[in-house]
Amino acid sequence: MAIDPTRLPRTESAIHDADWALDDLSGQVHERVAFTGVDLTEAASTGASFTECVFTQCRFNAGAHVRTAMVNCVFVGCSFFEVRLEDCKLVGSVFEDCTFGLFTAVGGDWSFVSLAGADLRKSSITGVRMREADLSGVKAAHATLAGVDLAGASFRGADLSGADLRGSELSALDPLTVTLKGAVIDTAGAVQIAGALGLSVR
């Protein structure tokens, strides 16, 4: 489902079809910018900041970003193949029709992020804070979602079959509304899922 235009951030400037491939974006600050068709392949950043920006059909492939903030941004039809995000802040950002093949995120704060319907197969997300994230309908079979704080997250219709969920906070996960066959969990996760089923672990 396409994003309601009225819910998009109100941008104040625009960058179209720019070639930022291989660029170092460290320290750059962008606020309320509409990026369209920008090539960020193999771009890198440390400490960059993007606030209330809209990225449409942008390519982030093979990029590496450390302690970069992309807060309350919207990504539409963007590619994140082989991207690595480390200790990045994406609070409140929305991803629509984006691709994430071999995507890696380590640490950082992704609270309130919307990844509804995203294909996260072959992706690895570890040690990330994803409180109240919208993961409804995600395809995360055999993905790694380990050590992730998923308190209050929405999982309805998610496919987590074969996923590595060890060390993650799963209290919001309703096992009756997701696919969990073959998923790997630890003892704490087993207790949380059992509790969701109304079982008592002794």
Automatic annotation (TrEMBL):
Residues 25-100 form the SV2A/B/C luminal domain. It comes from Catenuloplanes niger. This is Uncharacterized protein YjbI with pentapeptide repeats. Transmembrane segments: none annotated.
